[in-house]
Design goal:
The protein is mostly helical and 98 residues long. It has one domain. The protein is 72% helix and 0% strand. The chain contains 6 helices and no strands. Helix 2 packs across helix 4.
Length: 98
Amino acid sequence: MQDACIVALMRLPEATLRKILLKGSIRMIKSLIIAYPQAMGATILDALAPAVSPATLKVLIEEVSKSQILTPSQVKNAECEFIKLVNDEKVLPTALTC
């Protein structure tokens, strides 16, 4: 994901980000947190916290903690899934590409 794409996604309102994340797979969410811990990790967890149970959040954090380093292909797949969800929701003025 290009830096400009990360910046655009970080500017999404929390409610919009939450709506998009809840439509994505747990694998996608976990992969984005692992791939971009400083840029997206806390933002993703903060957006999800009000919408999921504490147990679900705990499992996600545990999964991230014990995960191995991702391959470039795994990161790309997560990015593309996320971008597809953003484009499907039409929350940005222009469609993103991955």
